[in-house]
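Data card: per-record layout.
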Amino acid sequence: MIQENTPAKVGLLELLLASSGVQFVIPAYQRNYTWTTSREVKQLLDDIKAVLRGERNKHFIGIIIYLERSLDFSRRERSVIDGQQRLTTLFLSLYAVKELMLERGMEEEAKRLEMQYLINPYDETAKYKLKPLVSDDTVYQQIVNRDFKNIVDMKSNVWLNFEYIKNEIKNLTERFSLNDVLLAMNRLYLVCVPISNDDYPQKIFESINATGAKLTASDLIRNFMLMPIESVKQDEYYNKYWKELERLISTDSKKLESYFRFFLIAKRQATVKKSDIYRVFTEWFASTEKEIGVEGIFKEVVHYARCHNAVYAQPITELDAVLRKPIEEFRHILSDMPAPLLMEYMSLSKRTDTNGNPFISTAQLADIITVLNSYLMRRALCDLDTSSISNYFPTLLKETLVDCNGDFSNIVVVFKKDLVNRNKGNAMEMPDDKKLEERILNANMYNLRTWLTIFLCKLESEDNPAPVDFSKLSIEHLMPQKPTQEWCDALQTDADTYEQNLHRLGNLTLAARPDNSKMSNNVWEYKTRILASTSHLKLNEAILKKSHWTIGDIDERTRSLISSIIRLYPYYEAKGEIVTKIPVVIDCQEGYAIGTFYPDNGSIEVLESSVLNTAFSTPEKYPWVEEQRQELLEDGVIAYNDKHQLVFMQNYTFYTQIKGSTALSSIASLILHGNRNGWEYWYTEDGKQLGQVKGLKKGKE
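The structure for this 701-residue chain is written out next.
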């Protein structure tokens, strides 16, 4: 007899014989049945054979850990936390033996096997002693019901393993009886570990899986959400919410993991490390459950999945008409960096206020995505660092939400202001027309052919009413990459000039992939004949009229295409909006920091290399300062440099937590340690104390 919370060593059949009124449940949150005939199942049968041959008297095959719940005075449910693979295989083995008995006319023995080991004969609700994982349930039930002619998935591991086990045992019966096989199975023993809710089953599960095949954060989140729920609700929530999540995002756990990271960033408006996804989710869950309940959390996760799906995957024709063009263009760019921001804005367009109106209209959302597309494409075509903006979008989301303060009627202007106006001259800027021309004019654009292809295809689509299959086109050099003497003579130029102009924008165009290789380094006349085969491309019309190709033509076409970039990806800024930003500094014996103060929302951006005070003797006097410093250390925002100074490793924006206040004092306290008045410690570039600057409204501190 297995007692609660007491590990016990039991034979395979003994485990089931002593389980009257018990149903083993493989929860929906567990992995699918993955054992295969080539590895684990083969090993189990090899162990049975070894016992039959007398090579072993007994053999340990693993542990089963289950959470036991009493359903009533006669029924118990054992939710398997670890060991579901071997337990499922045990039941498949018993059903294989039962089928062999029936095939041999051993009806009485088959009935006794079923009654003792496979079913609870007096309980129709939990009739079968094993309730497998939802996705494997259909094939398993067909085996239980002997519905072999209608197996829905002949390639499922459940069916393949059943067939394999049955054939292997059938071969064994040439030397041994089926009774011998069953006795041998009982000499394979398990250690069963029953636990209760008091034992924190989720923590046990995390510990077990930390030592086995690595689970992704999405696996752990699924288990965390479903494990505390009783099995009937588990199945309901799994089918209603988790399967819908997989339909909207993917069944791939890695892609789901990415989705949960985007979800949490959208919720927190702060970056979340991949290694922190599970921890941050459990913290968010704990703080949110009180407000909306467990089912509310499931609904929220699925709601944001619909938002992600609308941005990245939903068929274009199913989207609101005004969103189709900007979202289709965004999908060509296909950047994950702004995913949380777009998910949140999409969410606001799907949610309604007390009057039943969406917080953001689809027209506003379309304008925002159009601005974002220009921002991404201008930066990409100017070859500006993309890694620097990957962590910027959570900040941008927070800035826009703070600036809107619940009123989204002007969100497009706010978005332009925060994305474009506020970033002029810094690493996050959107290049204006002048900077764009300067960076592209003589640049190697062939290295940027992914982005160049997107631009040229958009240009072609705009000018060409006929449908074009862009998947069959690629970037072609007009002046070839490997110059021949004929080309050098025709151009009358030196090797350096040739090389300087080779990869310029004006020397690159779209051509059919087969034509690309045909043109190679052939002379201009031959190239234009080949290009004529794609004369339906408006992009190449002017080129085909040229009798020869020169450096001057490259320069002229480069400037023309730059004008097209400027037209197709306009520079957006919030007209008439003045973004007030004041460069500020703390420069005293205790610390040194430089930053930018934004009076419109009270935020302050502290710049990289700013130094925090570490020369104090009573840190316990200001625990909140220590806690905030520790959080910034863990996030990598601040760190000790080689001079043992505590410094900011990156620019970081702090926001006020109280409406009408600023972040000046809290950040001065963080940097200098203690309780500091920011209006007195922050100075302007001309040495004026910030509190003495006219026109600045001092709120609550």
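Known properties of this structure: The chain has a mean pLDDT of 87. The CA atoms of residues 53 and 176 lie 10 Å apart.

See the next section for split statistics.
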